[in-house]
Design brief:
Elements: H1 5-24, H2 46-56, H3 62-79, H4 103-121, H5 130-140, H6 158-167, H7 170-177
């Protein structure tokens, strides 16, 4: 699986599955995505994570969009509570717990990306241009299989975790569809049946 595959799969198929989400979502989260709060350091190397984001996230996001995606991902990692009890779903009586903290493995993978770049390109991962970084990511993901993005928490590599975390955001769905659907966002009940507004500059 190449680094571009999950991006293309998401952007191609999101429209087919998001229409149902948009029709059924009426409330739960703020209508606009909040800026991520500055988070304490997790030890995740931003000097590698940010260039990784540039290599795997859609170019349409631009520098500001990528920065927000990285900040949101880092804040999520910082706020993760390992083996916390999950919320009990309706109709379930068993108690379930979240997985262990994935951050240590993800930190090691960032270091491995940089090491792989140095061994194969004689340069740091961050110093390569975007086209030079993508083959490094492809090599790191060469053992991954599947055509769908995993849940961010179950992603075995930080590249997939970062991409999946962004792809599950309201902004990603809006970009994929070219209209303002913002799944999970609060909105008045009388707006639930209105046609979503187009996003300026979005490709349709």
């Amino acid at each position: 699986m190449t680094s571009g595959t999950p991006r293309r799969t998401f952007l191609k198929t999101a429209g087919a599955i998001a229409s149902g989400v948009a029709a059924s979502t009426v409330a739960c989260a703020p209508a606009t995505e909040r800026a991520a709060e500055p988070a304490a350091s997790t030890g995740i190397d931003g000097a590698v994570l940010e260039p990784l984001a540039e290599a795997i996230l859609p170019g349409e996001l631009g520098p500001e969009g990528r920065r927000k995606a990285v900040e949101a991902f880092t804040a999520w990692v910082n706020g993760y509570e390992p083996v916390a009890q999950e919320m009990v779903g309706y109709g379930y009586s068993d108690i379930r717990y979240l997985p262990a903290d994935p951050a240590p493995a993800w930190r090691a993978q960032l270091a491995a990306l940089d090491l792989l770049a140095q061994k194969t390109r004689r340069a740091s991962f961050a110093s390569l241009d975007v086209e030079g970084r993508r083959p490094i990511v492809e090599m790191a993901l060469s053992s991954e299989r599947g055509t769908r993005l995993p849940d961010p928490l179950s992603a075995r590599h930080i590249a997939l975790a970062l991409l999946a975390h962004w792809a599950s955001s309201p902004g990603a769905w809006n970009m994929a569809l070219g209209v303002e659907v913002s799944p999970g966002a609060c909105r008045p009940l009388d707006a639930a049946t209105r046609k979503p507004l187009p996003i300026a500059g979005a490709r349709t």
